Amino acid sequence: MFGRLDGWDLSKEDLTPHIPRVEEAHRRLLSGQGDIMDGGIPMIGWLKLPLELEEPHLLSIMESAKELSGSVDAFVSIGIGGSYLGIESTIASLTSRYYNQLPRERRNNRPEIYFLGNNLDPDYISDTLDILRGKKVAVHVISKSGTTLETAVAFRIMRKFLLDTKIVDLRPLVVVSTDRTKGKLRAMARELGLKTYEIPEDIGGRFSVLTDPLLFSIAMAGIDLVQFWQGFKKMAELTSGHTFWENMAMVHCLMRYMAFLKGKAIEVVGTNSTYLYPLIRWMEQLFPESEGHKGKGLWVSPSLYTEKLHANGQMVQEGVRNLIETFLILEEYETRVDIPFDEQNLDGLNFLLTGGTQEVGGINNKALEGVALAHYEGGVPNMTIRIPKRTPYWIGQFYFLMEKSVALSGYLLGHNPFIQPGVEAYKKNMYALLGKPGTEDRIQSLHRLKSSIEKIIV
Ligand code: PA5
């Protein structure tokens, strides 16, 4: 479903003039042409990865993860951005909300799983160390560049943590994933003799969900990597044709591009499932980091419904009309929660039972239908992506579809979606402010900038 854009309807005919461009972009992507290079390398390894992987390889990663799982109480996956989000979103979408609190046997004998390196908040790090104290802990650090400060700081802290627990040999408990040859992490892994996984040079962080490093962390939660990969593979097949209306990656990409052309700035991505919400957090990285170049792109705003309807839902309904909305709908919940019959009916809810919607999932779905119609009437066009079930297969399909859509978006917007030069700006300032050798020039200009900023202090 896709609806009104500021008082006009977006019809198939509106899309028609743009279809040849998207089809051309698709041909160029598949043949490795266009603005897709990073450091002289075409960054489209993710595109063929689903077709190249083989089951025995995935089984061996699962086996390694199972072996490590058996010997530890907790597992810490360290990384940020593309070296973190896909792991958390996959595990969160496929396991229990209270995974870490479950008795071990209900986690299929898997360890508790924690994340570090995704921020520099000392309270968060300290809380995580507190919860790990007294447990046998394994660590997996992922950094393609091997230089990311957040990740490196967390890894140093975790090495000290392990050594403080009288562990003298880190090798059975620490896994390092980084570039095949380059970077400090690779050198450290060699020096310490640690087990390693490689991040292929032609796959960027946010496109790396199906690479060995992320798969290893995902497998620590006991997730079936073969099913996961089959989902990617199926979607790669489903989106391989060059005919627009038969290729959902092209359709998804053009819908969003049309919204951008019509002045939309924000894509609210709402879901009916607490478990799909982390996937939208993954989208929140994939799209803005790939599209947000040269004054362009759509911001992705994750929204869990119905929670957000009691918050920024007001803005979606009646605020600035610069929004589109995408519903990420889980079609089949795993459980049924019935509304109990209450003879006294003091809360007046018995109408739910007589009205035919006797369980919470049904009410949630009706609520979402109501939301879509209300927001549409309020001037927010929308589209829907349906995920039939929370299984590795369907989640794998979803990832590949989004990756392909955003890759095509780069061609339409006119820039390379596989680089993120804007991310360097904060890093340069942070390193200068931290006194890193070689940043002296930057610190001078930062001082000048700071003194030129007018402050309003109350
Ligand atoms: O998508 C990307 O390339 C980034 O989000 C990176 O994944 C993120 O910056 C982490 O980089 P690295 O793996 O080099 O530590």
Total number of strands: 13
Ligand identities = 5-phosphoarabinonic acid
Total of domains: 2
Give the overall shape. globular
CATH architecture of the largest domain: 3-Layer(aba) Sandwich
Q: Strand pairing plus helix content: what structural class?
A: alpha/beta
Percent of residues in helical segments? Answer: 40-55%
Chain-averaged pLDDT: 95
Query: Distance between termini?
Result: 49 Å
Indicate the low-confidence ranges by residue numbers. Answer: none
Computed Rg: 24 Å
Largest sheet: 5 strands, parallel
CATH topology of the largest domain: Rossmann fold
Strand percentage, roughly? 5-15%
Helical stretch tally: 18
Under CATH, the homologous superfamily of the largest domain reads Glucose-6-phosphate isomerase like protein, domain 1
Question: How would you describe this structure to a colleague?
Answer:
The protein has helices spanning 12-15, 19-30, 45-52, 55-71, 85-94, 122-132, 149-164, 184-192, 212-219, 225-238, 248-261, 277-291, 313-318, 350-354, 360-377, 392-413, 423-433, 440-452; strands at residues 4-5, 8-9, 37-38, 41-42, 74-78, 112-116, 137-142, 174-178, 195-198, 266-271, 299-304, 323-330, 382-387. It contains 18 helices and 13 strands. It has two domains: 12-33 and 231-413, 3-Layer(aba) Sandwich (Rossmann fold), CATH 3.40.50.10490; 45-223, 3-Layer(aba) Sandwich (Rossmann fold). It is globular, with a radius of gyration of 24 Å. Strands 6-5-7-8-9 form a five-stranded parallel beta sheet, sandwiched between helices. A four-stranded parallel beta sheet has the order 11-10-12-13, sandwiched between helices. A two-stranded antiparallel sheet has the order 1-2. The mean pLDDT is 95. Helix 7 links the parallel strand 7 and strand 8 (174-178). The longest helix has 22 residues, at 392-413. With 458 residues, it is α/β, with parallel strands linked by helices. The structure holds 5-phosphoarabinonic acid. 5-phosphoarabinonic acid binds next to loops. 5-phosphoarabinonic acid binds at residues 80-83, 143-145, 148, 151, 204-206, 289, 420.
